[in-house]
Amino acid sequence: MAHLHPPTRAHADPGQRQLRRLDGVLESRRLPAASIRTTQWPGMRRTKEVTVRQLRIVLVLLLIVGLFAGQAVLAAEPVKIGFITSLSGPAGIIGKHMKDSVELALEHLGRKVGGLDVEVIYGDDQRKPDVGKQLADEMLKKHKVNFVSGIIWSNVMLAVAPTVTGAGTIMVGTNAGPHELAGKMCSELYFTTSWQNDQTPEAMGKYMQDQGLTDVYAMAPNYAAGKDMVSGFKRYFKGRVVDEVYTKLGQQDYQAEISQLRGKNPKAVFVFYPGDMGIQFLKQYAQAGLREQIPLYSVYTVDEISLPAVGEAALGNYETRYWSPDLKNEANAKYVGDFKKKFGYTPSFYGAQSYDGILLIDSAVRAVRGDLGNKKGMVAAMRKADFRSTRGKFSFNVNHTPIQNFYLLRAVKGAGGDMEMQIQKTVFENHKDAYYQECPMKW
Amino acid sequence: MNWLLVVEQCLNGLQFGVMLFLMAAGLTLVFGIMNLVNLAHGSLYMVGAYLATAAFNRTGSFLAAVAFALAATLAIGMLVEVIALRTLYERDHLDQVLATFGLILFFNEAVAIVWGRAALFTAVPRALSGHLQVLPGIPYPAYRAVIILVGLAVALLLYVVVSRTRLGMLIRAGASNRTMVGALGVNIRLLYTVVFGFGAALAALGGAMAGPIYSVLPGMGEEILIQVFVVIVIGGIGSIRGALVGAVVVGMVDTLGRAFLKPMLSTVLGPSAADNAGPALASMLIYILMAAVLFFRPQGLFPAVRS
Amino acid sequence: MRSARALTLLAGFLVLGLVPVVAALANQPFYLDLFRRIMIFAIAAVSLDLILGFGGMVSFGHAAYLGIGAYAVAIPAFYGIHSGLVQWPLALALSGLAALAIGAVSLRTSGVSFIMITLAFAQMLYYLGISINAWGADDGMRLARRSQFGGVVDLANAYVFYYVVFGVLVALLWLGHRLIHARFGVVIRAAKSNEPRMRAIGFATFRYKLAAFVIAGAGGGLAGALLTNQTEYLTPSYMHWTRSGDIMVMVILGGMGTLYGPVLGAVAFLLLEDILSAWTVHWQVVLGPLLVLVVLYARRGLYGLLPGAGARDG
């Protein structure tokens, strides 16, 4: 567990600034002598031919560096939250759901977090772990944020979370739930407002087991999360699995797999196809005429992002999830209602988690009365999960992963004629993830 | 082995191949005649899909939507050619790579700005939403059968145009010796713009037909583009016939590999090893095929004749 | 004009060399991370340019070596071997070997076939990477600690790591300079402009080109080793074809066939990405046309815009 560093916030006080300058100079003295020598290497002898024009070029280059450095000194007072997600590219739609929800949370809080002014800095990780890591460094070292939040992808999270917690800053994940961070790599400074990846397929496995289903055909993309989903499913489903099929990551056409599936004649199909893979699979499954013949049970596949694109192709499909827009509680009604009013579309679980993430941060800052240096106090406050979550009351497990209910959802035609997800029943109450015993943390 | 299933998978492979062919035909023409490496060809496919989807959702007529997408993408293609690409023909291939890579970024963001980042809703037109009984026991989606027919019709049409018409003659002449064609008084600039426009329209046709079965969203062109490059390299650059053969071969190999590689491996390696090796090998199959073809026939299967 | 160019280059090196000092003075250590990542990609781009710009071998699979170098650090680390003296030579050796095998097959082709066959091999390695469960598959693996050098060089120190990367970049440029002007480099460059003639006068060009291909691959592997250390994370997405594309774009943007152009390209591309994406989520709609403009109006890439860059690079 990383020790807690004293906060390194920038102050506007000029005396402080002087001190920091001095610090910087001292730091630069500590540089190894050998490496300084290399900077003077190429062609020093030729400088006798210096003209005004050439000097100007050097000056301009130095100015550019100066400009970059200069931005730092203007660092301001409020609570700073760095929010990293994918904003460009095909996954940008998920990032948009998350960003809009963060904005709504801030609005609901009167643009104050824990009573202090707040500044959120958004970063676009482009779905690349190294870019995510660079953004985290930028937020920690340049913007000196007090919290880092967001992150859609497990691999980006695995690169970012240790960087943030290693720097003594609190990380609030609002989607990715890789098992490493719930287990061996858990940290006092890492919280997640979403779930551990396996929890959702476990719920589906439980439901299908309870229904006494058998002869299930399982499909997922051929990558780590795909295999985790199927193994999570099989942790609770003990019936016969006809076949497990792993398809190419990012595949567009599933007709070949669907023909194979029909040939095996299963009683039910379990799939995990997130994002655009899901849209393609659902359409093609329905077009093959299988939707009416073999019921489809999925996780992270039919959601408020894919539903508008697939429409009736998803009609009657089952999903398990910890949250749904129709979940009955006051906080959720307010979130969903205001979200639709403000942005004109239905929010998704990605958004609900991000909204919760900001509220969790708010509860922490409130508990320490704005003393952002008091990390221990904030962590203690966050462990209570003392805020009005869109999922209703929940608690954190020892590994800072939610212990929460999971519901069975079904895609149905709503009152307005549009497709929507409706909760059918509760599958798990206060469900714990499978990895918390590997986490050495005690509190 | 279930032979009906094999027949069905061959149909699937043919359909996927025909889809690839629609894109490959335009790309290989532009490559062969103008000597232009156009990475933005996938963007034209995407633009076609977006325009067709938007028009279909508005008018409710799939035919009208496809016609509109074809015409509009033809115009956009010609515009892009005149504004940005025309000056690149004489340049190094790599300059073209950089410029058309820039175009990809631009188009992807442009459609995101116009239509948003969420995938658009599309459905198969109602008349084609049923199934055909190709062989007893094989219900085949009618829409996919139509894709196969349209693709083969386009191939036939292209064959007639290229081998029987004046435009086709100019195209063939341009591919083998463009300096000479220019010297003979043909307006080569116009010819290039027209060819580029038609290539764009073919990509748009592919995109328009892909909309109802794939997802219409920014960046949808890139995943298929790389496979299309595989097709034209295997087929031989500049050759329509090569593009057709290459597309069908790639479509077949990919589809059959995905369907039958794992069961076949599991009889040899046992089921658990096949679970791991099968999908990985199936993903690599078309690249292995391409490497093999290029190793033995670097100019592809049906290279265009060049002087 | 030679002196103007020398001075510009000197200024460039000075700026890169002084980044840590300025960052320390301004209390902005982030710029160390940013410029370190830029220099790592510059190393990959310079090594690609050795074959692409000078040798006319357009490899569209350079990210494969980046990935191999990354695995060569992460896999030993996974089994508890953290010594950089093991990891880094392994990265060089494995990526060099892979380049030898890929080059031996690919170099029998040329032109577009060569582009595509190198892409094919990189894609095969990518799909291999995402399907090996023991080594993290698509999720990748966390690097428990950066490469260790017996306590002499401590990469955990941001400044030390920065100057190590800087040193590698300078060394690679020096090596590149020597190679290009040696007999070896002259043969490579001549083979680019007229290979049959080179063969006719008795040079076994294939061997020369293969050697260059291996050197470039090893350079890419070294960049990969540095990148895993920078990110402290391994992911097979380092090998995805879009990465190969990015590196190629850096080379062309900076100016291919020049020694320092790729460095400039890496700096410009990654800085633009960082600045534009902080400014608007639609940053790619700006970056795209900018790239087109560079192609249309800066014929020798950004390097061609520098004062005194008209002459052949030296």
Explained architecture:
The complex is a heterotrimer of chains A (443), B (307) and C (314). Chain A is α/β, with parallel strands linked by helices. Among the domains of chain A are: 79-195 and 325-393, Response regulator (Rossmann fold, 3-Layer(aba) Sandwich), CATH 3.40.50; 199-321, Response regulator (Rossmann fold, 3-Layer(aba) Sandwich), CATH 3.40.50. Chain A has 15 helices and 14 strands. Chain A has helices at 14-29, 33-39, 52-73, 92-108, 129-142, 154-166, 179-182, 199-210, 224-236, 255-264, 275-287, 307-310, 330-343, 349-367, 375-383, and strands at residues 79-85, 112-113, 116-124, 147-150, 170-173, 190-192, 216-221, 241-247, 268-271, 296-298, 318-321, 395-396, 402-413, 419-431. In chain A, the strands form two sheets. In chain A, strands 7, 8, 9, 10, 11, 12, 13 and 14 form an eight-stranded mixed sheet that branches. The longest helix of chain A is centred in the first third of the chain and has 22 residues, at 52-73. Chain A is globular, with a radius of gyration of 25 Å. The two termini of chain A are 13 Å apart. With 307 residues, chain B is mainly α. Chain B has a domain at 10-217. Chain B has eleven helices and two strands; from the N terminus they run ααααββααααααα. Chain B has a two-stranded antiparallel ribbon. The longest helix of chain B has 32 residues, at 3-34. Chain C is mostly helical and 314 residues long. Chain C has a single domain (2-305), classed as ABC transporter involved in vitamin B12 uptake, BtuC. Helices cover 71% and strands 3% of the residues of chain C. Chain C has a two-stranded antiparallel sheet. Chain C has a two-stranded antiparallel ribbon with strand order 2-3. The longest helix of chain C has 27 residues, at 205-231. Chain C is globular. The interface between A and C is large, with 70 and 62 residues.
